[in-house]
Amino acid sequence: MNFKNFFIKRDFDQIWNLSIDIDQKLSIIADMARFNTLSMIVLAKSGHIGGSFSAADILACLYYDIMHIFPENPQRENRDVFILSKGHACSILYALLSSLGFFPDEKLYQFRRLGGLAGHANISVPGIDGNTGSLGMGLSKGKGYAWTFKNKGLDSSVFVMAGDGELQEGQNWEAIQSAGFWGLDNLYLIVDRNKVQTNLEVSKILDLGDLPKKLNLFGWEVKTVDGHNISEIRKALTELKKTKGKPKALIANTIKGKGISFMEHPQAMKENNGFYIWHDHVPSDEETKKAKQEIL
Question: What is the pTM of this model?
Fold first, then answer.
């Protein structure tokens, strides 16, 4: 591997084995995954930085602390399942999966290349439990897993991450309604509420209104957190786990492009005539150099 462009699994292992606070470890790991994500996208000349970076801290908490996963046996029956409904942000998920040994580090060089890592979440990649890309489908898939685990008597949970703009899709609300009716308390919806869809603010396209209240009305237990505060994320997910008889939702207020000052919403929109250009824009060599310096 090119050490200038990528951290490898051994680097992540060294951080995880340090004698420091777990919140510090997870924060460092999230930034290392951001670094690898940026390298993947620049190398491929294609990808989605903004929405990947907003999700990084949440995913680091899930994969390194909350979920029961088995990199050596990704399809183990009693595993927890994660579905990235906002499948275009798969680069950050791939970065974390490789850091845990689901597949070799070298695969990161093959992002968005034929025979390599698909440009949207795809089950051809070890550790991916659902194809996603067409927005609004992930929660229905997650609900199916949750229902199956319940009926098999398995003590496994299902975590689905959706974007806030994605919740404008009607299929989400069919899944939300039925999951609440069935009391699927092994199902977690995590909303990456970065407030931007593609290049405009969600509130200007179709405002979601009082999202916690809506979810409560459908029978969900809901908590709202700062999606970049590791301690808050871990605490909220731990508390939600104690709730029985209801599906759970974590609304994470995040910043699109988090970690790179010139990519962070809302400042990035102010600098680009009200448009968020970093949804799928690839930075120049100079911007990449500046971005990597900021991340680390």
Answer: 0.97
Interatomic CA distance for residues 113 and 210, integer angstroms: 41
User: Distance (Å, rounded) from C-alpha 44 to C-alpha 58?
Assistant: 25
How confident is the model over 155-180, as pLDDT tens digits? 999 999 999 999 999 999 999 999 99
Cα–Cα distance measured from residue 44 to residue 96, given in angstroms and rounded to the nearest whole number:
18
Sorted by sequence, the CB contacts under 8 Å of residue 69 that are 6+ apart come out as: 63, 79, 80, 100, 127
Angle, helix 230-241 to helix 22-44, in steps of 10 degrees: 110
Between CA 221 and CA 177 the distance in angstroms is 13
Contact 291, 263 (CB under 8 A): yes
Measured in whole angstroms, the distance separating CA 100 from the mean position of its chain's CA atoms is 15
Instruction: Return all residues near 261 (Cβ < 8 A) that are at least 6 apart.
Output: 267, 294
Strand ranges, E, within 149-211: 158-163, 187-193, 196-197, 200-201
Alpha helices in 20-67, H assignment, sequence order: 22-44, 49-61
